[in-house]
Amino acid sequence: MLNRISTIILTVLLCFAIEAECQLPLRIAKGGRFLETTDGKPFFWLGDTGWLLFGKLTREETDKYLADRQQKGFNVIQVMVLPGLTAANVYGDSALVRKNLAMPLTTAGNSFADSVQYDYWDHIDYVVDKAAEKGIYMALVPIWGGAVKSGLVTEKQATVYAAFMAERYKSKPNIIWMNGGDIKGSDSLAIWNAIGSTLHKEDTRHLVTFHPRGRTQSSDWFHNASWLDFNMIQSGHRRYNQDTAAIDKKYGEDNWKYIQADYNRKPVKPVIDGEPSYEGIPQGLHDPAEPFWTDKDVRRYGYWSVFAGACGYTYGHNAVMQMYRKGDGGVYGVREYWQDAINAPGASQMIWLKQLICSHNYADRVPDQALIADNVGEKYNRLVATRGKDYAYIYTYNGRKIPVKMGRIAGGSVKAAWYSPRDGHMEVIGTYPNKGIMVFDPPGDEKDGNDWVLIIDKV
Question: Which helix (H) or strand (E) holds 53?
């Protein structure tokens, strides 16, 4: 067998080369399940939440952050354009005139050497262009949900502002519109529809989605909206026993259930978990005395959702999402500075999910729990399976035995291997007849975080 590490490095470098060279807008792929670039190349969304990037980082810090994310395989950054109506950046530039959403504060020229000419929007332009150089798409949230919910924005203002955003960025190749911002669509429904419709009408080049509140999904309100190109869920930051409301208990921590629900909706649209639990954040979000989510948790959410049919996955870290630095008043019990947190274990492990999905035929992959012969399991014991025509993946979070119903993929014989989500290491198991039921026992002891993917390939 080829040296696995060399193969992985080659594959990853090739992916980076394709992304850097093919900076084209994204579109929905044939079949409606996945994304691709407008020249037809498959696109697996591997996102990072850099929510406060535009406001808190200098140009030099931006370069460092984007270079790191490119190196780690991320190809989408989710970011707030306006965290609120008083938004200003690290250079002291305000975004709006008198906190009026319909009055962006722009200046003639964009020379960084002239502080008068280099304004809030010029800085966003710089970041967007720098990301494009690195093959990274910017998922822009025009206005975060809090200001809208507070009644500080009118529908007319929202429409004018959305038109401004569409006009300014429709020529950029690497834009994705992310309406909403941690909010239920039912909060100010007319305004969210106005923003979505305006973006869709004035910028026909780029996709539009909606970032919802925790434990909700965009499809709860907008699945049939003409402006919504793909669905997004926020599975949220709570663990099972922290859900109190009935709507939260419906799916709870099982983010694969949200994906499964949207995957089965008509008309067919792609779906992604745009905000699962962040690495380095308290379970439940608000109490630092609670345990913190770790790398094993962000891996679990990633493989659960993608194997259930998602078109990609968004990772997040508590310190990075708020770009926490020395002297800041941090929130959610943040314990690291962003410059250190970019190297958190989970951030470095996301590339192995992307590499695995890109290593086989992308277009024909479907979720298929029928691969599991019995005892699919619940909660952390859950097995999640996906397959193409001639390959299959089954994920276990805790290294439990996997009973497989053979014959679900093509071929008289198959070869099997274990793939580690922790480091991309692969161990060959053997070759077997593609019939009957076989039980595979992963390496190591059965415990949370001893996660493995069983790979089955047609011989």
Answer: helix 53-56
